[in-house]
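Protocol step 4 of 5: obtain the predicted structure for the target chain.
Materials: sequence only (see below). No template structures provided, no constraints applied. The aim of this step is simply to have a reference model before the mutagenesis design in step 5. Sequence pasted as it appears in the construct record:
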Amino acid sequence: MERLQKVIANAGVTSRRKAETLIQEGKVKVNGKVVRELGVKVAQTDRIEVEGIEITKEIHRYFLFYKPRAVVSAVTDDKGRKVVSDYFTDIEERLYPVGRLDYETSGLLLMTNDGEFANLLMHPKFKVEKRYIARLKGIPEKVRLRQLERGVVIDGKKTAPAKVKMRSFDKGKNKAIVEVIIHEGRNRQVRKMFEAIGYPVQKLSREGYAFLDLRGMNAGERRELSHHEVKQLKALAKFGQ
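Step 4 output (structure tokens):
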């Protein structure tokens, strides 16, 4: 159930504020009856008319997308670079990314047209875990990784504690692969965390988001989330993992 004015706005008829005015003026009907009170909630099956014209209610869509590197996490780009929406041109609904992955970072990105769902997952107080795999120049000592676990200062603010695990390293090539799990979503956070301890990231991928992962997928591919997965994500965001 959603508020009537929100449903009208989501259908693209007008803004939410204008929808409220139309409701108060008696120009909106729900199942044939005029509704003048704000805050009335309607179901997906309710028939809504605005100034005598029945609206088509927006259907919410939710996708898991494997973002390739060198793709912008946006629907447009003023520099003419490839954007994530280029991979959804066959979808009727206008989708946008939930949060961002920077241009050079690949991996798991959620796409939706449900603003409430996106805001829920991105709100700082909701601690949805995100798992990254970083390929580093150099092999960090355990004491350095513990710094990340406790939190390091980036952009003048200390990061929340992270979960960090060395996956592998190659002394000959002086490289390491490290797994990092965080629940924050600050700009280029993982890259800046490793820079703070003196080990720049050469390649970065987000491999997991809450219980979701990229198994069986290649860069540029997508799949639609199930109703159960969407419910799980909402519950995790609200009540913790």
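Step 4 remarks: The chain has a mean pLDDT of 93. The two ends are 25 Å apart (CA to CA).
Proceed to step 5.
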